[in-house]
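ok so i was messing around last nite and threw this chain in just to see what happens. nothing serious, just curious
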Amino acid sequence: MFIIVAFILLGLVAGALSGLVGIGGGIIIVPALALLFHFSQKTAQGTTLALLIPPLGIFAAMAYYKAGHVNIKAAIFIIVGFIIGSLVSSYYAVNLPDVVITRIFGVFLLVIAVKMLLTRA
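result:
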């Protein structure tokens, strides 16, 4: 029962941050599943991708859309790229050792964090 509550709390935090600043899956859920719930990197990533299947962000997206902050054309093209990119990269990712995937993910987060910290808003 505790694990169910913990997963729901993780979803609440990720959902709140997603609605607030547009992050969730890759930045919150993947590290939490790997570090707090001891999922392998691949299982954390696969689980996170699985939760994207239903239209989870629809309510937050609608609020942004109503406020004029959604570019539908860009979203459609990004979806096309996302589908292709996720299909191709997941084929390779499942065949790489967990340590390689974990390090790639960590380097990506570090590069993004440094860039965000050093770039003027």
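not much to say yet. The mean pLDDT is 86.
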